[in-house]
Amino acid sequence: MSIALPPAAQPLNVSLTIGVNAAPYFTQWYADNKLPTEQPGDFLVRMIGPSVVDYVAQKSVKTQSDVFKAYQQSVQAELQSIKAAL
């Protein structure tokens, strides 16, 4: 199964404000994990991107699983109906 969403019409620009209590943690996280020439926006895309893709994939798998379960239930109901008719 392949998950491929159509590209957006334009990039998504997001402003991010980190509160003063959490800012030191974000600063340390960025300093410890950024690549040498990486800008903060590129860093966030690299760090958050895989989680976003995983979310979409898991959501798609759940949807497909729900469709399959519903199909199984309808087949089971039909089999029961046929058995009852015999």
Beta-strand content bin = under 5%
**Mean pLDDT level:** 88
Order of helices and strands: HH
Number of helices: 2
Q: What is the gyration radius calculated from CA atoms?
A: 23 Å
Biggest sheet record? none
The N- and C-terminal alpha carbons lie at a distance of 39 Å
Query: Helices and strands: which structural class?
Result: mainly alpha
The count of DSSP E runs of length 2 or more, i.e. the number of strands, is: 0
Unreliable spans: none
Q: In which range does the helix fraction lie?
A: 55-70%
Q: Estimate the global geometry from the Cα principal axes.
A: elongated
Could you list some keywords that capture this structure?
2 helices; mainly alpha; 86 residues; single chain
List the helices and strands and how they pair.
Layout: H1 23-33, H2 40-85
Description:
- The protein is mainly α.
- The chain has a domain at 40-85.
- The chain is built from two helices and no strands.
- The longest helix is centred in the C-terminal third of the chain and has 46 residues, at 40-85.
Q: What is this structure, in a nutshell?
A:
This protein has 86 residues and is mainly α.
